[in-house]
Amino acid sequence: MGVTRGSSLLSEGQERSDAARNRQLLLDAAEALVREQGAEAVTMDAVAKRAGVGKGTVFRRFGNRSGLMHALLDQSEKKLQAAYMFGPPPLGPGAPAIERLVAFGRARLAGIEVEGDVLREASSNAERYSGAPYNVTKSHVALLLRQANTPGNTNLLADTLLAALDAGLVLHQHRVQGYTLEQIGDFFESLVRRVVPVDAQ
Questions:
Q1: Which positions make up the DNA-binding region (predicted)?
Q2: CA 102 → CA 9, 25, 49, 77, 126, distances in Å?
Q3: Among candidates 85, 86, 22, 81, which has minimal Cα distance to 56?
Q4: CA separation, residue 142 to residues 6, 30, 101, 157, 168 (Å)
């Protein structure tokens, strides 16, 4: 009896491990499609083919295309959150608040082409601003502003700074207006340095 139960627990653990691996395989395939062809190319069929699995596997993991897009956004946010919470400075802890703000902006811009296309397909702006990913990021920016002794309403200022990094706007500036992501990052840095007190820089 004990052997059977142990075998059952082992198989359940293996199944969970396999499911996590399959989920990551599918997300990696979807992200590669976004980078190569844009978010409109991400269909359940295309992801299944890219990952080398049946289409049913994609539906079981994500439910539908919208679920897949939200999972991609969630993965992107978690990667950035891990970097600014636990990674090396200046993005992670250990650097002055203003340097961390600038590094955050440049890190956000580095993934903007994937995130921007996916965001456009996944949800409305209203959903985005009320969701946990945005609010975790906003809390981080507001905290850095407070650490830099920035005067005024740091929550509203955090929204303003994040608006300059809005995926839809940045993609328009980059693809239509012709600005490079480096130029947009330089402008974000100049914006941060204008709002943070001189004695904190």
A1: 43-62
A2: 47, 32, 39, 17, 26
A3: 22
A4: 49, 32, 10, 8, 22
Q: For each of the chain's 201 residues, which pLDDT tens digit applies? A: 444 555 555 555 655 777 888 899 999 999 999 888 888 889 999 999 999 999 999 999 999 998 898 888 888 888 999 999 999 999 999 999 999 999 999 999 998 877 887 876 665 555 677 877 889 999 999 999 999 999 999 999 999 999 999 888 999 999 999 999 999 999 999 999 999 987 766
Q: 161, exposed or middle or buried, with CB in 10 Å at 0-12, 13-18, 19+?
A: buried
Domains and CATH numbers, the chain: 1-63 (1.10.10), 65-196 (1.10.357)
Residues of 96-118 as b/e, b for ≥16 C-beta within 10 angstroms? bbbbbbbbbbbbbbeebbbbbbb
Cβ–Cβ under 8 Å, residues 54 and 69: no
Angle, alpha carbons 83-95-97 (nearest 5°): 90
Q: Which two three-digit tokens encode residue 22?
A: 């399959």
What pTM value is reported for the model? 0.79
